[in-house]
Amino acid sequence: MCNNQTTLCSALLKDLQNTTIVLELRVLGVLGKLLTGPWMGGDLSNPSPALLEQTKSAPTHNMFAERIMGLTDHHFKRAPNATTGFIDGKVKSAKNNTMSWLASKTSTQQKSIIYFSITRARQKRNLWKKRAENIAKIQDHRVRNKLQKFDKSARMKIERNLKDIYEKGATVRCL
Q: Is there a contact between 102 and 110 (Cβ–Cβ < 8 Å)?
């Protein structure tokens, strides 16, 4: 056990009260973590040719994801009542240049593509609606079961209390 009166402990306590030394110790701790992390001596510090080939198509930055998030946020703020599917479609259309692709088609091709898209979207919306209704039914069923259990336990508690009172010899008078 360390005693405050020993010279070593008092010197350490004095050093730890100095904010400059504490800050230097923190910096050294962070540097130690950086220099001994998995990136300094693992598979990633000396990648094999197979790993390089496998990760060649991965982006080296996240700018595309940031742009998508920014565009989605912009559309949500611009139209707060819009559905997620609508905003998702607008973002995908903007990033994939769908409208310029559609404009490059003939008018008959455009009509057939648009009609196909409308019918497919209707089918998807109906499917999502049915899924949401099924989830709501399941959640409602679970809530009802939980409330029934709660009511049953409350009734059982009251019955036990009344039974205990009756066994102790209490009588009920009618007024």
A: yes
Which pLDDT value is given to residue 3? 53
SS (H, E, C) 138-155: HHHHHHHHHHHHHHHHHH
Retrieve residue 48's tokens. 């094999």
2 pLDDT higher than 60 = no
Secondary structure of 98-164 in HEC code, one letter for each residue = HHHHHHCCCHHHHHHHHHHHHHHHHHHHHHHHHHHHHHHHHHHHHHHHHHHHHHHHHHHHHHHHHHH
Write the single-letter amino acid at 12: L
Identify whether the C-beta of residue 42 lies closer than 8 Å to the C-beta of residue 48. no
